[in-house]
């Protein structure tokens, strides 16, 4: 049936919307409250009218996927304009009102979801310390509730860090200082030092740990940082951003994480700046010889972020406070296929037998980064690069090797950003006299700075840890320490590092044992073995050399790996 519809999408009124349009169909889930769009469209057919083409385009790209790049929106016809229902007009008016609010409101840093850890990196037996917005948190696996919990990392007895505690036999979180124990709701269930007056102390609100609203979402643990009354309702009404690729079986991806020695602003602007990749990540993720002008254009901006694009090949979204996402489409090569005419005919025949798919030949890769404000001069990045091609390579690559590649990428501009942040701070924190940005490649960096200054108060709400001074510059060895930035917090890498260390020790033992064996055999004229003394000595040398190589490999992979741009050709 052909009819015009007005659709209002708002998480406060509905969290699931069925989108049926020429560009996409399917369920759109987990919409943040700010996603208020009003569109006029024809169901099951080409659009005949749209009052908000940009909003619809934004909606489709953000929640349905980049296939919508082919979407064509026709200008509203006079007839349809006149026939719009009263309801539709009312919704359109409300949209305009919302647009104004979205551009002029004030961003609340606490009333947001922040990803705090990657589920696959977590150890269920080990409480984990994390800091978000200067607030210390402990994340622990609550087997009674079958979920991760996020508590304030301070014991109500004498503020010892609960992250240094343990999971008690009851499944509750136990403080390791005097043994107070806490259940899923933060209530104290045990005070070993008390007999008399025990019940009264346990029932006191002062014996409770403060808890945060948290959830597991798309492979990450998320925390809602606002703890004021009604926080649970506000958190439910504003779900974290939903990334369609992370739920799409046609895409392969892993999720990585690193703690960084520079703050949220530098991390976010860096991840909204694709033009640094060929230089700062030369020979790792790009190549300086392929750098080209990047004409980026902002298409929509509001209090919850902005979106930009580069022609038809790249879309960029900043969804405040954390998400920086770039979608790339790699069109098929335009050169005619080469080969023997018979082989070409066979290929053509096979292609004609295949089920036609939408965008079958378009390779897509997305770079998804969550920039998490930890404390002044410190941040955390959680990232994923889902793609719909080269799936076999991904499946055959061990996860620990994938993590090594991620660390190599992030380390290669780490020192630049750390130093840049200190320079900005030493000159009073104002980037205006320091940045000269004549190229369109810097569009998103400047748009982010504009959002930060005008809508987000020009500073992150770090609570009691707010400070205008950064932590002192650590030595280079500490800056590039992979144990601090990743390995200690990753079950996959710490497990792989332990296995490599064990292998190194085994090789050393084998080497010494073989040399000893050859020595005994030759001194005792032990005929059987003395005949093999040359191969045994060779084997001993090979074991020793491999163990030396392994110790360098372990150091480079899991301990420290510097990056010197000047020596990379
Ligand atoms: S400080 Fe936690 S039990 Fe004493
Ligand atoms: Fe790892």
TrEMBL record:
Biased composition (Basic and acidic residues): 75-99
GO molecular function: 2 iron, 2 sulfur cluster binding; chlorophyllide a oxygenase activity; metal ion binding; oxidoreductase activity
Gene3D superfamilies: Naphthalene 1,2-dioxygenase Alpha Subunit, Chain A, domain 1, Rieske [2Fe-2S] iron-sulphur domain
Compartments it resides in: Membrane; Plastid, Chloroplast
SUPFAM superfamilies: Bet v1-like (SSF55961), ISP domain (SSF50022)
Top-level taxon in the UniProt lineage: Eukaryota
Transmembrane segments: 506-526, 532-550
Protein name: Rieske domain-containing protein
């Amino acid at each position: 049936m052909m009819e015009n519809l007005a659709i209002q999408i708002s998480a406060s009124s509905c969290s699931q919307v069925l989108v049926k349009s020429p560009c996409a169909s399917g369920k759109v889930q987990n919409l943040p409250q700010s996603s208020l769009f009003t569109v006029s469209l024809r169901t099951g057919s080409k659009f005949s009218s749209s009052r908000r083409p940009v909003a619809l385009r934004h909606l489709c790209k953000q929640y349905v996927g980049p296939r919508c790049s082919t979407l064509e929106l026709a200008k509203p016809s006079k007839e349809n304009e006149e026939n719009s229902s009263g309801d539709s007009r009312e919704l359109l008016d409300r949209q305009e009102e919302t647009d104004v609010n979205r551009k002029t409101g004030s961003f609340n840093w606490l009333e947001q979801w922040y990803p705090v850890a990657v589920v696959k990196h977590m150890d269920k037996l080990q409480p984990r310390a994390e800091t978000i917005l200067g607030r210390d948190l402990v994340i622990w696996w609550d087997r009674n509730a079958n979920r991760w919990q996020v508590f304030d990392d301070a014991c109500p007895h004498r503020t010892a860090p609960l992250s240094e505690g343990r999971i008690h036999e009851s499944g509750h979180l136990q403080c390791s200082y005097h043994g107070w124990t806490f259940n899923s709701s933060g209530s104290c269930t045990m005070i070993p030092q008390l007999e008399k007056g025990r019940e009264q102390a346990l029932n006191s609100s002062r014996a409770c740990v403060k808890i945060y609203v948290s959830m597991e979402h798309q492979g990450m643990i998320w925390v809602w940082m606002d703890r004021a009354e009604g926080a649970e309702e506000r958190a439910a009404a504003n779900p974290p951003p939903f990334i369609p690729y992370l739920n799409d079986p046609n895409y392969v991806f892993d999720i990585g994480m690193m703690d960084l020695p520079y703050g949220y602003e530098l991390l976010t602007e860096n991840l909204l700046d694709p033009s640094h990749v060929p230089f700062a990540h030369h020979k790792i993720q790009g190549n300086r010889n392929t750098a080209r002008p990047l004409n980026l254009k902002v298409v929509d901006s509001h209090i919850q972020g902005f979106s930009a694009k580069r022609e038809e090949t790249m879309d960029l979204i900043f969804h405040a406070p954390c998400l920086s996402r770039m979608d790339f489409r790699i069109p098929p090569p335009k050169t005619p296929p080469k080969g023997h005419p018979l082989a070409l005919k066979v290929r053509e025949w096979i292609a004609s037998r295949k089920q036609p798919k939408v965008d079958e030949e378009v390779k897509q890769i997305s770079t998804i980064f969550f920039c998490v404000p930890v404390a002044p001069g410190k941040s955390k990045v959680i990232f994923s690069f889902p793609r719909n091609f080269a799936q076999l390579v991904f499946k055959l690559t061990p996860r620990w090797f994938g993590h090594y590649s991620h660390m190599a990428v992030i380390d290669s501009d780490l020192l630049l950003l750390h130093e840049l942040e200190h320079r900005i701070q030493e000159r009073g924190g104002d980037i205006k006299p320091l940045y000269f940005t004549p190229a369109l490649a810097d569009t998103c960096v400047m748009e982010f700075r504009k959002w930060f200054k005008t809508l987000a108060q020009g500073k992150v709400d770090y609570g009691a840890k707010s400070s205008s001074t950064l932590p002192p510059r650590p030595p280079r060895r500490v800056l590039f320490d992979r144990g601090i930035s990743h390995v200690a917090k990753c079950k996959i890498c710490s497990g792989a590092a332990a296995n490599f260390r064990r292998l190194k020790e085994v090789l050393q033992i084998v080497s010494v044992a073989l040399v000893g064996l050859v020595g005994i055999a030759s001194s005792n004229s032990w005929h059987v073995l003395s005949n093999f003394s040359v191969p045994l000595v060779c084997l001993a040398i090979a074991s020793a050399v491999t163990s030396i190589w392994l110790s360098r490999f372990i150091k480079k992979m899991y301990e420290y790996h510097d990056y010197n741009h000047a020596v990379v050709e």
